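How a chain folds remains the central question behind the approach discussed here. For one protein, we set the task of working out the structure tokens from the amino acid sequence alone. The sequence in question and its structure tokens are set out directly beneath this paragraph.

_____
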Amino acid sequence: MSESVIAYLKSKQVNFQCLNIDDLPDWKDSYHGQDCHWIRAVLLRASDGVAMAVLPAGYMLDFSLLSKLAKKEMEPVQGEEANLLMKGIQPGIRVPLPEYFNFPGLIDRHILSMDKLWFDSGDGKQVIQMTGSDFVAICENSFTASFALSKELLFSSVDGKRVSVQQFTPMRIQSRIEDIIELPAMPGMALDILKISTDRLATPKTLAKIIERDPSLSAQIIGWACAAYYGYRGKIDSVETAINQVLGYEMVLNMCLGIILGQTLRIPQDGPLGLRNYWRQAILCATLAERLCLRMPIQHRPVKGLVYLSGLLHNIGHLLLAHAFPPHSFVVSRFIETNPHISVNDIEKHVLGVSHSQIGAWLLQSWGLPEEIVEATRWHHQEEYASNYAAYSNLILVANQMIGRLMLGDARPSYVPDAVLDTLGLSKDEIISAWNAMEEHIPALEALADQLAA
């Protein structure tokens, strides 16, 4: 592992040091900072084989620009396939030395100006430190160009020459969403459920009769009630029993509404924003947000059912993007795959000029959903947002930042802002306690989510 990498560097006769990785900040935590010295590697496959792109860890790889510069279409290589290509290296580590692995190299020019850079030696214990100029020198046969963008440059061109994906303005996107022929109206069953949600005379039997019109939905509700997560040991032979004995009226009402609306927009199952990741993130977020809601001071506590439904639907903009703009969704997914720790919101704004939270809110508003859910969808990435319904978006934000350690959908590792916790009346200990209480159930919840994606 690291011994062969170190021997390789010595053969190149460059100055470098070996440092203990435990003495350095993890690049996933520090890459947003101004003094991040980490660099990272991305493996890319083209028709003529695999290449390695190397760039500063805090920069975004402009996937479309790199393909244009290289004059060939490329796609990311990930997971087990990438591990196999990194021969002799600990799984999950990408040592950014293209010529050591006999890969064609694509080196971002920003590395040359780094007075100090770090990269893993391959064993997860030692880190190599050298200057940017020395690093570029050992990659003498690699292609050097500018294809990475700092956060400050994500939304602007460089000297007017940077090639990027053609952007839509938010108004053009909104116009397209309002006019698109293929965009489905709210399903009739969802309308019926919305009607009884405000009907004080509605009963579990009323709700069950609506659900039973759809055998697939009925089976899903009964299957959920039978799941180990809920721990019910009795027999569940009907939707009404599932409502009365296990799940509860409000839970089933909001669960059905979320399922029906989410399944209205059909998209591919796989990919960072595919249906499987959508439902996994939705179920975990809804569950955790509901748990956090119940820990809030009762005088400030929002409606629990609407919190849960907000968690299910807050990322519906991803589904709409894939449904209405498949080519653009494909490009966004490629950017996400090559920049896994860059904010998905930042990537969307760079590629499209608009975020999924905006287009999701437009859709839910056009469907006439409660303002609480529309606001949670629109502002769930906004830490400073304040309104009468801010508790909904803040709960979704906190839940997603805890889920971020799983890298699901658009959830990314992040700290929970003190100001948001103060607004919700929650402490960091309560947030961690809620997460710990849910964590052991994650496999069971993801299994339920996979049923929805099937």
User: Anything to note?
Assistant: Residues 30-34, 155-169 have pLDDT under 50 and may be disordered.
